[in-house]
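Batch queue: ligand-bound targets. Current item pairs a single chain with pyridoxal-5'-phosphate. No template structures supplied; prediction is de novo from sequence plus SMILES. Inputs echoed for audit trail.
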Amino acid sequence: MTNDPVPELLARATQALTAEFASLPAFEPATESAASLDDMARILAETAHHLGDNYPYFHPLYAGQMLKPPHPIARAAYALAMAINPNNHARDGGRASSEMEIEAVAQLARMFGWTDTYLGHLTSSGTLANLEALWIAGQLAPGRRIVGSEQAHYTHQRISAVLKLNYRSIPADTRGRMRLDALEDELRKGDVGTVVVTLGTTAIGAVDPLDQILTLRQRYDFRIHVDAAYGGYFCLIPDELDEPARSAYAAISQADSIVVDPHKHGLQPYGCGCILFRDPAVGRFYKHDSPYTYFTSKELHLGEISLECSRAGAAAVALWATHRLLPPEPGGTFARSLACGRAAALDLDCRLRGDARFQPLDAGLPELDIVVWKLNAATPERASELAQKVFVSCAAHDVHLALVQLPHSWFSPARTSTQSNGSVTCLRSVLMKPEHQAWLPVIWEKLSSACTHVLEA
Ligand SMILES: *Cc1c(COP(=O)(O)O)cnc(C)c1O
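Prediction returned. Tokens below.
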């Protein structure tokens, strides 16, 4: 947070924005809403103290959950927009920011190979975006089931329950990917309406075999929803991915709907998900009148194609500004920053494989930038206990990792002394900041000494 450019950027842009409204008569804020600078500063100092009670998500030594600060341009643009506080529900409330949303969403659609005919908008989260996708799925095929891998985000099962759609989990293989044979068993039953395909699972960044699932459509009739909330942006760096993930990403434009979260890998503040539909005709299901808001413009109001009503125009402004600086295109600076995290993940994986204290997943993993491994121990219970201790000891060494429960059977039986159908607690690291590449040797050294500390105790 040293050399934070945001205060300076925001000060300059605020002057420019003030100038936009300079022709209006000046006014004094009402005494009821006025507050002294000193009072506000005191409360903000208190706020900063509270916020100090967080893991340092911005620092390269934070390598735990899917967390990182937004890009400075996104923070500055978001804060600037809040001076206006536009609402992208309707043009009345967010004229400029609705245009900016349409442009920013077009860039996301283009990233997936969709240029002219698609329908899409931002949402407040990946959950809401997935809800809209499954809602449309249910509208198009009432009574037919939704299926997704057991490693799909838990939100799909819960959303299906909310929408009163029947949901079924499909077993995953030992690399966390949906098993095609198990999927076909379900498809044979003839009542599957939609298959949720995850490109980048939340636990380990596994990539479901989208290309092969598509070939099943020659025999069975179903819709494909791609949940790429975490992994969507990796389609920008196909050369950095290995098979079979590369082929899965190459097929993404054939999906019926796609979810991506700019607030995960897209450098945005929270409050920025996105849903895209290949067929714009699904817009008919959203059709409704608003007695309050849709008069001032004949142009599309984003509220007409969204389940949420009020939405932060600032989120669209931040994404638009970020795309101006860092277009989400192959070969660009943004793509290179994704590749750095991917390189860091491969580096960590390689070090883990060379160290007998650790047991990584199958060769061929990680598929993206998430690395998961267990501690080598006589029993899964002991391995879980050690993972907990290493996690705590790492934090004491200023390295912040995460923990995840995985099926014990995923770890290669040759190196696993007891067979078990249960789960084992593993260490997990999401290496999503470009700085992770240069910092990996430091992370490794600290992990290694944390581990020595635990094993010697
Ligand atoms: C994070 C995530 C979600 C949920 O998105 P939110 O933005 O947290 O609501 C859904 N699916 C996948 C694969 C995710 O990684």
